[in-house]
Write a structure and sequence with these properties.
The protein is α/β, with parallel strands linked by helices and 183 residues long. It is built from eight helices and five strands. The protein has a five-stranded parallel sheet, sandwiched between helices.
Amino acid sequence: MKVVVLNGSTRPNGNTEQLTNHILGGLEYTTIHLKDHTILPIEDKRHDSEGFQPIDDDYDQIIKQVLEANIIIFATPLYWYGMSGPMKNFVDRWSQSLRDQQLNFKEEMSKKKMFVITVGGDNAKIKGLPLIQQFQYIFDFVSASFEGYVIGSGNQPGEVLQDEQALQQAEPLRNKLNRLMKA
């Protein structure tokens, strides 16, 4: 099983990355730091006669890595009660991938197992639930399997590692990932 982590944080080694690393400790995975790549916002061409045109950025190389993975972990801080800008640009571009005949995007995504890890500072365990629901709808749309999530609390770097509830929720998620990777 190949695991890809899509890290949407704009802060190196921030709370979301620290919680993700804690959960995945000892497992083999590839992390894609979306902030280190150029992913231009979508220009909606669904209803134009020429359709979507190729865009000169890093999206195509990233989506190829995602499509080669079996397990995808969406790791994003809770920014203004939603996913980060880099993560949102990436997901928005799926509209383009859905229309790319060469990718068979929806069919390929339906084979994936998805997880979400998010950390926020303002009552994240409650205010992060709409983000989890948003990801559920996204995964449902492409018929992917939503396997689990963890919402952590932390603002200053490292605070999430003091969130006992998130660390407890991390254990069953790590066990599930271990089982999936051995399957």
